[in-house]
Amino acid sequence: MIENLPGYVSIIFILTTFLTVGIFLYAVKRSDFNSTAAKVLRSCLKTHKGCNRRSINRIIAI
């Protein structure tokens, strides 16, 4: 932990983190699920290995 850091800085950081995650989830919910970006994200979230260049290229080719 950083010494002499005011408490409000941590609170603002946590609030902005939750706001960012909320905006991201809202955007994903409203997005077109057939887009290339949605396919890549869905594939990355499904696999435990994550994404690498080969898997992304394979998804885009579909």
Task: Note the quaternary state here.
Answer: single chain
Name the poorly predicted regions: none
Beta-strand level of the residues, as a percent range? under 5%
By helix and strand content, what is the structural category? mainly alpha
Using the CA coordinates, give the radius of gyration: 17 Å
Q: Give the total of domains.
A: 2
Walk me through what this model shows:
The protein is an all-alpha fold and 62 residues long. The chain is built from three helices and no strands. The protein has helices at residues 7-30, 36-46, 53-61. It is elongated. The mean pLDDT is 76.
Key attributes of the depicted protein:
2 domains, 71% helix, 62 residues
Mind sketching the topology for me?
Elements: H1 7-30, H2 36-46, H3 53-61
Helix pairs in contact: 2-3
Short characterization:
The chain has 62 residues and is mostly helical.
